């Protein structure tokens, strides 16, 4: 896999493309997705579904809808299958 990818996501009838960077961490990985200038990490949980992680310092100005995060996670999961 490349380090710099683009992730196409459809949310509420709109098409988006988000830049993605793969981050290797030990035996696993995280995907760093840039959503409108906000860096969100997606990592697989115990059941291999992806969850979003946001740095605590970015929570103050965080304005990404939960539904959009879920849509991004679903696209990531569909690509892995």
Defining key terms:
five-stranded antiparallel beta sheet; globular; 1 helix; about 20% helix; 5 strands; about 80 residues; alpha+beta
Can you characterise this structure?
With 81 residues, this protein is of the alpha+beta class. The chain has one domain. 19% of the residues lie in helices and 48% in strands. The chain has one helix and five strands. It has one helix spanning 66-80, and strands spanning 4-11, 14-25, 28-35, 38-44, 50-53. A five-stranded antiparallel sheet has the order 1-2-3-4-5. Strand 2 and strand 3 (28-35) form a beta hairpin. The longest helix has 15 residues, at 66-80. The relative contact order is 0.19.
Helix content: 10-25%
The fraction of residues in strands falls at: over 45%
Structural class: alpha+beta
User: Gap between N and C termini, in Å?
Assistant: 15 Å
**Looking across the biggest beta sheet, what order are the strands in?**
1-2-3-4-5
Shape: globular
Number of strand elements: 5
What is the helix tally? Answer: 1
Rounded mean pLDDT score: 89
Low-confidence stretches: none
SSE sequence, one letter per element: EEEEEH
Q: The biggest beta sheet, please? A: 5 strands, antiparallel
- Please indicate the count of domains: 1
Instruction: Please state the CA-atom Rg, rounded to the nearest Å.
Output: 12 Å
Compact overview of the structure:
This protein is α+β, with helices and mostly antiparallel strands and 81 residues long.
Please outline the helices and strands.
Layout: E1 4-11, E2 14-25, E3 28-35, E4 38-44, E5 50-53, H1 66-80
């Amino acid at each position: 896999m490349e380090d710099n990818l683009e992730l196409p996501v459809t949310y509420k009838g709109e098409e988006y493309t988000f830049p993605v960077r793969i981050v290797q961490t030990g035996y696993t990985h995280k995907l760093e997705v840039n959503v409108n200038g906000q860096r969100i990490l997606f990592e697989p949980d115990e059941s291999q579904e992806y969850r979003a992680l946001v740095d605590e310092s970015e929570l103050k100005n965080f304005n990404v809808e939960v539904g959009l995060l879920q849509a991004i996670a679903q696209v990531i999961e569909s690509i892995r299958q």
